[in-house]
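quick one before i forget lol
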Amino acid sequence: MPHRNAPLTETGRLRLARCVVEDGWPLRRAAERFQVSPTTAQRWADRYRRLGEAGVADRSSRPRTSPGRTPTRTERRIIKVRLLRRWGPARIAHFLHLVPSTVHRVLTRYRLARLSHLDRTTGRVVRRYEHARPGGLVHVDIKKLGNIPNGGGHRIHGRARGGRNSS
């Protein structure tokens, strides 16, 4: 599917290419008629000559290769620092002279949990609220909004009612 600002759809590109290749239109005239640049008209005509109708079909813009992938040795160093020191991507990146986004991508690729999901002492993923049946655990959050006395009712803020120095 072409992007929304594309001047030509597959059908339009095919018509342009046929006008140039089969009907012998000059490139400038065909480009003007289909409201594209002569360079674009040349590109579609050349693809039509080489590949036929398949040449004007939509293609993926994804690269065929990814030559910029992080080397395996660097990935191992990132993982080693993460496991030994339990640092986040930004700190690891500074330590290893890398970019934080690269470190984050490597950690995500190897499914290393977020630091907030790890137990600080063991470094293992903390799994919470696991029960055999749903509803086996009821979790209640409480928020203390005021100073609530500690029982008996006579002591408020650590002092007895009535005097400053009475205990």
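fyi The mean pLDDT is 83.
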